[in-house]
Amino acid sequence: MWALDKSTAPPLKMDSRYTSTAGIGDLNQLSAAIPATRVEVSVSCRNLLDRDTFSKSDPICVLYVQGVGNKEWREFGRTEVIDNTLNPDFVRKFILDYFFEERENLRFDDFLGQVFCTLGEIVGSQGSRLEKPIVGIPGRKCGTIILTAEELNCCRDAVLMQFCANKLDKKDFFGKSDPFLVFYRSNEDGSFTICHKTEVVKNTLNPVWQAFKISVRALCNGDYDRTIKVEVYDWDRDGSHDFIGEFTTSYRELSRGQSQFNVYEVVNPKKKGKKKKYINSGTVTLLSFLVETEVSFLDYIKGGTQINFTVAIDFTASNGNPAQPTSLHYMNPYQLNAYGMALKAVGEIVQDYDSDKMFPALGFGAKLPPDGRISHEFALNGNPQNPYCDGIEGVMEAYYRSLKSVQLYGPTNFAPVINHVARYASSVKDGSQYFVLLIVTDGVISDMAQTKESIVNASKLPMSIIIVGVGPAEFDAMVELDGDDVRVSSRGKYAERDIVQFVPFRDYIDRSGNHILSMARLAKDVLAEIPEQFLSYMRARGIKPSPAPPPYTPPTHVLQTQI
Q1: Which of 61, 196, 226, 560 could form a disulfide with 220 if both were Cys (CB 3.0 to 4.6 A apart)?
Q2: Are 291 and 255 spatial neighbours (Cβ–Cβ below 8 Å)?
Q3: How far, in Å, CA of 145 to CA of 137, rounded?
């Protein structure tokens, strides 16, 4: 659970089981559980084992969740790294869907030890606060983890605030102070949970901190009268930050904005108890307070934004002869092959957001009749002027027809199909449409440099790319395209947004042979990042959702009687 520095932590790969609230579409055979509520889990540690020689450890917490069917552990998320401390209180939280009727297994582990628990254990502990010892090096005490859960309010407001301070206590021997603020929200049991840290302003007793944005849910969980505590510290390189003082307020007080009500005396209780003439250790003033309502993916969908779905299928020879059962393209009359399962799993959910349900379906890496021309961007329905298929069933029919007419060949080039969708996406940048490209492939990419350049260019457009790898091949290059860990770059230019999500289909195959469950797991994971990628484009362009149309009212029919 605790990495000694950022470089030693494993690469980030998000699991969507708890963050996604999307349904499973028409896959009715899977009973899609509806979460009872969403909870925010806060993490603190005490007395961690010190593994650094000349300073304290730089801890990070990584959370893993266990799959429902295959019991495999997948990374859910991670906190920030906190330098030089053995007693971290992490600011970044984990937000999980809580299912009363499911055992939701969690694992916190890495280099110093492991902690296993369930979400129900945390929620069911007194005050929803669970303490457990970290189990690691035999015979050594590795410290304690403290997990706190709080049910989330559905408040969607965020607030932009800025603070300054005046005449803070001088704490540094050779300079002034290096002050920063730490914000805590109070809990129902009277304890406090950290929710924000400002940056450090160096060598001043009169700092002005940068404005910061925080959700009202994180600040007070939607309770406007809940106590908010703010502590003021002087930053020290060795992590032993000096306490200057503190004050309390509430969202309701802060919402008055810049006024005499929002000038706070910073008080150090120890100093106040020792010195009779002590007044304060300076003052902190609220400079600005602006409330914004956070818009969601569904706000855009309700406002009429269409999701345009395009499919691209790998027809290279490495898939094997479609007539042979060993081929990834084998047309088994009794069950879908891996390509068919990936197409159906993702398509049946995405098609619900496309009003005409007409989808372009492309192939790449095949020799086309009659002249044997190799194409990396051909229409599965044989009509390059109109490659649209009617619904996912139409895509499946065109796929099977193409398998009978084209010759599998190569190489595996992605750039042409990415550029194909990018041409359409570049013509619609007003937020009315968003494009999703699903690439299903079996192997190692041949045009990596061109594909990276295409992705960097496409990151400026309203589009996302899902890559599903089928078969047993190594997909190291695909992980590089999935910019979760390091943003994709080409010729020194980095992608503006992370727009690629890659998953190997083999990770989702149900060992009992339940293909419906395999498809549901796959769809949930590959689509999990689409809403945030969609929102990142809309926010960057300043595009607001259109107002939702008024609810439909059926016309009143007046019965006319002839006299």
Answers
A1: 226
A2: yes
A3: 16
Read out DSSP for 173-222? SSS---EEEEEEEEPTTS-EEEEEEPPP--S-SS-BPPPEEEEHHHHHTT
Q: Do domains 37-152 and 157-293 have the same CATH topology?
A: yes
For residues 129 and 68, is the Cβ–Cβ distance under 8 A? no
DSSP-assigned beta bridge partners for residue 192: 186
Q: Which amino acid would we find at residue 324?
A: Q
Residues 6+ apart with CB under 8 A from 104: 18, 65, 96, 98, 118, 119, 120
SS3 content of the chain, % helix, strand, coil (to 5): 20, 30, 50
Check residue 313 and give its pLDDT: 97
213 is written with which tokens? Answer: 């944005």
Separation between Cα atoms, residue 446 and residue 442, nearest integer Å: 12
Q: Residue 486: what pLDDT?
A: 78
Confidence band for 287, pLDDT divided at 50, 70 and 90: very high
What distance in Å separates the CA atoms of residue 477 and residue 78, rounded to the nearest whole number?
A: 24
CA distance 294 to 219: 14
Query: Does pLDDT of 36 surpass 70?
Result: no
CATH of domain 37-152: 2.60.40.150
Tokens representing 139 are 């015979």
Domain boundaries of the chain, sorted by first residue: 37-152, 157-293, 305-541
CA–centroid distance for 65 within its chain? 15
For residue 406, what pLDDT is reported?
Answer: 95
Domain 305-541 of CATH type 3.40.50.410: yes
Provide the whole-model pTM. Answer: 0.62
Residue 111 banded pLDDT, cuts 50, 70, 90: low
Instruction: Evaluate whether 522 touches 505 at the Cβ level (below 8 Å).
Output: yes
DSSP 8-class letter at 316: B
Tokens of 253: 């007080």
How sure is the predictor about 52, in pLDDT bands with cuts at 50, 70 and 90?
low
Q: Are 408 and 319 in contact (CB under 8 A)?
A: yes
Q: Where are the beta strands (DSSP E) in 325-415?
A: 358-364, 366-368, 373-375, 378-379, 388-390, 407-408
Rg of the chain taking only CA atoms, in angstroms: 28
CATH architecture of 157-293: Sandwich (2.60)
For 415-465, how does the pLDDT look when each residue is reduced to its tens digit (9 = 90+)? 999 999 999 999 998 999 999 999 999 977 899 999 999 999 999 999 999
